[in-house]
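fyi for ur records
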Amino acid sequence: YFKRMLDNKRDGYGLGALEMMLRYEALLQAMSKTEWKNLKRDVLFQKLSRRYRLVILTNENLRTQLKKLQAIDPKEKYFERVFTSEEVGEEKPSAKGFQLCLRYLKLPPKNVLSVGNSLEGDIVPAMRLGMQGILTREFLPSGGRVPKGCVSVETLSELSGILKL
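which gave:
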């Protein structure tokens, strides 16, 4: 996207985009680290990772997610695996990524909990496959209909109580 922006300005062939990307990634990492610390995510995910296998399924590109993970989980203590739409070949809400996660985990869907912030992208496709769903509204506006069988929380911190951590 940075290259396209520069292409439109006709400023060379886009090397400036690389500088913009590197600055963006540095800011993204700093913001991710600060947010993680302020929200006390390390405490939550330390508890979660002791009891559960944690994987990430995302529509973000791999490089962006790795930059965020480098900031929040540099020793790879919490998350076992990251699956991106790049490697899956389809974006959520496609079932393909969820099926890949299930194969990786070698667990039946009823034993897998999908936690996400998008009803259409995270929760509905997971529940269609038989997974349990928890919708977090932490960064979303309140309201909206939640499907039967799905738990809705205002913040991820509420997982401690729900999962009795």
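The chain has a mean pLDDT of 91. thats all i got for now
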